Amino acid sequence: MNNTVGLTGFIFNNDVEWENVGDGVRRKIMAYEKDLMLVIVEFNKGSIGYAHKHPHKQVSYVAEGSFVVNINGEKKIQKKGDVFLILPNVEHGVTALEDGTLIDIFNPHREDFLQ
């Protein structure tokens, strides 16, 4: 259900369109309300989620592929099934070592993704 609070209720993958965010990265905002948002992000091999920070808490699940994950300058390789958690205002980014997918959850929701 798409309403003033967000996208809630039953949400079907095929009903949500991909948004191209550039340089081999696309995302689907699957569900959100004021305190929570779930986003699927697909990366082509070699694509970069450039280092950035934001005031949201973020937990990311590696659903497919493998990534070099950079958290505050520390880099580790994470593969399918791994998770990373980012606290507010901590710099982070990823580089896809192969085609891959992240499931990102934010608290609160990312208003900048909705504009």
Largest sheet: 6 strands, antiparallel
Question: Could you report the average pLDDT, rounded to the nearest whole number?
Answer: 95
Strand content: over 45%
The first-level CATH class is given as: Mainly Beta
CATH fold annotation: Jelly Rolls
Helical fraction: under 10%
Counted by DSSP, the helix tally is 0
Principal-axes shape call: globular
Number of domains: 1
Span between N and C termini? 19 Å
> Would you tell me the structural class of the helices and strands?
mainly beta
Main-sheet strand order equals 1-2-3-10-5-8
Global Rg: 14 Å
Number of strands: 10
Give me the strand/helix succession.
Answer: EEEEEEEEEE
Uncertain parts: none
CATH superfamily: Jelly Rolls
